[in-house]
Amino acid sequence: MDRLRRNAADGCRVNWVRFGRLIVVAALLAMAVNYVDPGKLPGHFDRRLLVAALAMQPFVVAWILLTAWRHGLIVARQPVRLGITVPAVVLSVGLNALLPARASEALKATYLAEHAGLPMSRCVGAVLLERLADLFIVGLMGWGALILLNLEMAPAVLAGAVSLPLILLALMAILAGKSSSAADRFRLSPLRHFFAMLSAVADQFNPAGFMRLFGLGLLIWSSGFAMMAVFMGLGGSRTLSGLQYLAVFVVTTIGSAVPALPGGIGTYQAAGTFILTRYGFSTEEALALTTAAQLSVYLPTLALAILVSIRDGVGLRSLLGRARSAS
Length: 327
Hints:
By secondary structure, the chain is mainly alpha-helical. The chain folds into two domains: 1-31; 46-326, no CATH class. Helices cover 78% and strands 0% of the residues. The protein is built from 13 helices and no strands. The protein has helices spanning 2-35, 47-74, 82-95, 101-116, 120-148, 155-174, 179-185, 189-199, 207-235, 242-256, 267-278, 283-311, 316-326. α4 packs across α13 and α5 (120-148) packs antiparallel against α6 (155-174). The chain is globular. It comes from Candidatus Nitricoxidivorans perseverans. Its main location: membrane. InterPro entries: L-PG_synthase/AglD. This is Flippase-like domain-containing protein.
């Protein structure tokens, strides 16, 4: 009976999630119809965007290598070589264009567990630890951009943007090594599951572990910022200041995190168009810039993901099935 109730609850949750995604997609389509002139859009996909896409590829490579390096240091007590972590990151990033973020991250954990001989709990815990660190870094970047640009925003929103990752980090530090016992004291299964995943990587909760986590995290996000700034600087008709590029980067990052379509498709463009039009870009140019920027990351990594699947003798359909089952 309990199992039937759990299955029914999961089914209701999935239906509500799908309903929410449909609402977001409908809202995005309505915005496109009302604010975008289809006749002007093709003219913005010109040679300038192609040059910008090519110029950003070295930064895409650096971003992937840094992400793989950090993951290899966190996921095991002995560093995992790049020959294993790079394909895992490539699969996760490339297939994120086809999968929800949670499923693509689960795919990375599944690949590491199979090819590095690590426990699945350890791989999932490492992914969670990375996401919490990234939340903290993006929160600080957004906080700084909002303050330096003097954007109007309620103090409570600013405080929440910074305090949430700080609270999460404090919980991580306090409960390091005690995650299992803490999980037992919580009766809510999401909290039990959360602390159980963190307990698998409790050995990372030390000064050296945090330095690796956040030091490499800053390098990763800096390469991501450079990637976006180079593309916008070469592809756009206007030149922005460094702080304005930072604001665009933070806003589009937040937009891409909205769980509507895989890879943040649609919400990334909406967020980018919102901030770029404030800086003088037309709606059509802003939409073309953000679409081309996203494709410049997803198309090469998706092609590499296909090559990885061919090399390992695993079809994409099988990989997608593994990711969905693991998530």
